[in-house]
Amino acid sequence: MPSLEEELFPSTPGKFKDRNRHFHRCFASTSTMFLWALFLIALTASYLCFQSFMDSGNRYFTSTWGGHHWERNVINSAQIRRSHGGMSVLVTGAAGFVGSHVSLALKKRGDGVVGIDNFNNYYDPSLKKARKNLLTQNSIFIVDGDINDSKLLVKLFDIARFTHVMHLAAQAGVRYAMENPGSYIHSNIAGLVSLLEVCKNSNPQPAIVWASSSSVYGLNEKVPFSESDRTDQPASLYAATKKAGEEITHTYNHIYGLSITGLRFFTVYGPWGRPDMAYFSFTRNILQGKPITVYRGKNRVDLARDFTYIDDVVKGCIGSLDTSGKSTGSGGKKRGPAPYRIFNLGNTSPVTVPMMVAMLEKHLKVKAKKNFVVMPGNGDVPFTHANISSARKEFGYKPTTDLQTGLKKFVKWYLSYYGYDQGKL
Ligand SMILES: O=C(O)[C@H]1O[C@H](OP(=O)(O)OP(=O)(O)OC[C@H]2O[C@@H](n3ccc(=O)[nH]c3=O)[C@H](O)[C@@H]2O)[C@H](O)[C@@H](O)[C@@H]1O
Asked: pLDDT of 248-294, one tens digit each?
């Protein structure tokens, strides 16, 4: 019987020797290749490990939250300081326009307030920092973080037992949605779901009041807009994400027993406002002698908005929080039906954009250089007009500031904030 070796390598001894040498050479080169391969795999693995270490290390080192001092700040800020009916509120978007005003109003009456804001650069972050300073002076702590960071949210709910969430963090702006659609999905959809997930899991669950928008009425032509009107014709991605938010919050109310109130804001304006909005950018341009672009609808019809003053909206937000009713679930389990509400927070008296410009001219004592152009098809709607009877009935919402008065207050703030000599105007 031939041996295995002979079976493998039969024939003459000489040939066998040669083959044997060849076999050894082959084996040697195969094992060298094998060793090299092993070496390369080990090198790649250690590189990947190093990368992930650096990543987590970076996250750790650049993290702006966590630690004993940070936790103490959260706990202090969340503390209720009034004897009856106080609430502890997590305000998302607290360095934003509406968020900063609502936070101050809650703190003033003794409620606990913790803010969270990602300080993104959609508009001048220095204005957000200035609002934050104002809040800090009033003992309100703002966490620098994103609502998509679930770990951060879980941590916040771990250390402060929030009774309410005032959710105002969002990617705002109707026309910018065509430039940066992803940012609307990030904040208004993914961020909202991230927040709701943490809220539904927490124990006790907080009641949630959040900012929807008048833009959900889209191409609706029935006026004034009532909450029961159709909202299935959004004219912009912004509006579509707010409408999606209304459906998403409904799901969380239905499945998990979260108490939800959605507020449809109507073109909110006032001191500490948003520089991307027309009244604000018009003021800047008018003062700098630059032209402004005034959009017009078809057949030169003026566009109109139900401009709503910030103090009125703040009252609406607080009225909603006070009447929100409790969430019924805990730890992700529903225990019974919870309130699901939607309210218009408007002013009920629309004003055309040229009229708004005329008011600014009066307060600024400067004539605007107006360029009238046909409204581009980028998400705008021709007019908005709120029916507010539901909010009035539920929590006595009653706006008291007309546009003329509100813009006067805005201009006063603008001139002082940007250092204009008011005596010269
Ligand atoms: O009520 C709302 O739901 C929305 O109100 C505003 O949206 P918008 O009413 O479009 O407010 P502005 O951007 O300040 O525009 C006000 C009016 O000025 C007009 N406009 C705007 C910009 C411009 O350069 N020229 C101009 O004529 C617009 O067409 C609009 O009719 C906010 O920007 C949205 O975040 C908010 O959700």
From this structure: 999 999 999 999 999 999 999 999 999 999 999 999 999 999 999 99
**Residue whose pair of structure tokens reads 């026309």 in the numeric block:** 175
Q: Say which of 217, 238, 295, 414 is annotated catalytic.
A: 238
Q: Give the tens place of pLDDT for each residue, 309-318.
A: 999 999 999 9
Nearest to 301, CA basis, from 353, 366, 358:
353
Residues with CB under 6 A from ligand 1: 172-174, 213-215, 265-267, 277-278, 293-295, 303, 305, 353, 375, 380
- Tell me which residue of 113, 334, 89 sits closest to 207, measured CA to CA: 89
ipTM above 0.95, yes or no: yes
Q: How far apart are CA 127 and CA 386, in angstroms?
A: 29
Work out the angle between the directed axes of helices 310-322 and 97-108 (0-180°, nearest 10): 60
- For residue 335, give the nearest of 210, 203, 154, 194 by alpha carbon: 203
Spacing, Cα 249 to ligand 1 middle (Å): 25
Question: Taking all residues of the chain, what is their mean pLDDT, rounded to a whole number?
Answer: 90
> Any idea where the domains of the chain sit in the sequence?
72-267+310-346+384-400
CATH fold group of domain 72-267+310-346+384-400: Rossmann fold (3.40.50)
Average pLDDT of span 141-161: 98
Q: From ligand 1's centre to the CA of 396, what distance in Å?
A: 27
Using CA atoms, how far apart are residues 145 and 151, in angstroms rounded to an integer?
11
